Amino acid sequence: MTRFAKMHGIGNDFVMVDGLRGSFPPERAAAVAAQVCDRKFGVGSDGLIVAYAGQEAPFAMRMWNPDGSESEMCGNGVRCFARFVREEGLTEASTIPVETGAGLLELSVLEDGRVRVDMGPARLTRGEIGMTGPAEERFVDQPVEALGTVYRGTAVSMGNPHLVLMVEDAAAIEVERVGPVLETHPMFPRRVNVHFVQVMGRDAIVQRTWERGAGVTLACGTGACASAVACFLNGLTDRETTVSLPGGDLEIAYAEDGRVWMTGPAMRVFDGELALG
């Protein structure tokens, strides 16, 4: 049996496993993720996150999507990771360096229980994002067609790729139909996370998300960062933005040095044991 914690960050939920004190071979993770993320036959979650020892930091976070693919990073997941390693007694530090597929991140657990994350710099060129076309070119306010509709899109990487589409009414978008078409758009050979964003003011936006490998989710932390950056690049918002997602709000700051800071909650829901086949 393998112990786990179920956690969520504004509705983006995860099965969390301690791979430091217990054995959890990464080669098993894809099959396990497909099993435990299933909401009918498993625990049910948007991803499987395992804590390992890092090489240049005390911890390393790895995450697998419900389809078994591994994600470079997850903003809501990394906040849950910070609370998880503290609550498991793996550290007492309030500032926690963590290795991720997007690089080394610094997580700060605040007095109110929220977690502030230095997400690192936003990557803005096609080459950094993982797009086709000239590597040094940016993709800002460009036409993107899906199912007969032309959207205005901006691409940003937060260590994983995001396509942000500005819309007049985010609630009216059929995310379940349009999302998978754009996820596999030929411009993104490794697929892409897709976000439909409605600007409410200079410091507030509404976002709905189709996540690569997971589908519709209640929240996406790296997507919120990418959306805030995209809105700023298009002159629609200021550098500090509240991003409202179906599961709750995140505070995003896009600093003048290009780094992005994300602040939001992380909650433990329950603990259990996995009977892995």
Describe this structure in words.
With 277 residues, the chain is an alpha+beta fold. It is built from five helices and 18 strands. It has helices at 29-36, 75-87, 126-129, 175-183, 221-233; strands at residues 2-9, 12-18, 48-53, 59-64, 70-71, 95-100, 103-109, 115-121, 142-146, 149-157, 161-166, 193-201, 204-211, 215-217, 240-245, 248-254, 259-264, 267-274. 44% of the residues are buried.
CATH superfamily of the largest domain: Diaminopimelate Epimerase, Chain A, domain 1
Profile the largest sheet.
Answer: 18 strands, mixed
Q: How many individual domains?
A: 2
Could you say what the CATH topology of the largest domain is called?
A: Diaminopimelate Epimerase, Chain A, domain 1
Rg, alpha carbons: 18 Å
**Class derived from helix and strand content:** alpha+beta
Count of extended strands: 18
CATH class of the largest domain: Alpha Beta
Question: Helix segment count?
Answer: 5
The proportion of strand residues reads 35-45%
Distance between the termini: 10 Å
- The best one-word shape is globular
Average per-residue pLDDT, rounded, comes to 96
N-to-C series of helices and strands: EEHEEEHEEEHEEEHEEEHEEEE
Low-confidence stretches: none
Percent range for helical residues? 10-25%
List the helices and strands and how they pair.
Blueprint: E1 2-9, E2 12-18, H1 29-36, E3 48-53, E4 59-64, E5 70-71, H2 75-87, E6 95-100, E7 103-109, E8 115-121, H3 126-129, E9 142-146, E10 149-157, E11 161-166, H4 175-183, E12 193-201, E13 204-211, E14 215-217, H5 221-233, E15 240-245, E16 248-254, E17 259-264, E18 267-274
Parallel strand pairs: 2-3, 4-6, 11-12, 13-15
Antiparallel strand pairs: 1-2, 1-18, 3-4, 4-5, 6-7, 7-8, 8-17, 9-10, 10-11, 12-13, 13-14, 15-16, 16-17
